[in-house]
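Revision sheet: structure tokens.
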Amino acid sequence: MARLAKPLSDTEIKNAKAKDKEYNLADGAGLQLRVKPNGSKLWLLNYVNPITKKRQNLSFGAYPDISLADARKLAQEARSLIALDTDPKQHKANELAAKAALTEHTFDKVAQQWFEAKKESITQEHADATWRSFKLHILPALAKTPISHITAPMVIKVLRPVEAKGNLETVKRLSQRINEVMIYAVNTGLIHANPLSGIKSVFKKPRKEHLAALKPNELPELMLAIANASIKKVTRFLIEWQLHTMTRPIRYL
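Predicted:
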């Protein structure tokens, strides 16, 4: 029958001296205090990985930053995960990654990454206008929001004031561009799905306005402008030919 380790005491831990080689003081159930040659003391839990079935160590931090009571609490939490077939070391790594994502993958940082990729395929003027619209309407409210926390109601609330001013084309463009950022986040593995795919439908649609027809008395001025324009002769002939041959569409009842 295996001998049970005698639980450690605070006095025993404080009095533990460094030796030429590191050694462990056992508290029981896998919890150990490793004393290093430089005098530092580190809490470890030695356990069997529930997936690989191999023994490994999980670090809880250094003594006295982590007290004996704290170490025992952390060890019990880890054992509870093991009982549920969860590797506590991997669980800890996942939690740290999730916390890091909240600061590393904010909307403004992801939007900048998307913009760097997009601007290579558009004109400089278009690129400047795109980023200017983000800085004016979107980033003041959403810049530091983690990309994984972005929701449709959140973005709709940001765009409502733009809609209220009657800038419906701007709302339409911003909806499209924000969706592109979210799709970029999906494709790079930052989020699992785009929650903004349907937001365009909640806003008023811009009314299409057709260009006014040219009045007959304005034709001479147009023809004179074409004749004096700095364009190739074949281009001028083509424009004049279109003016003579094109027909205005009519709708039959």
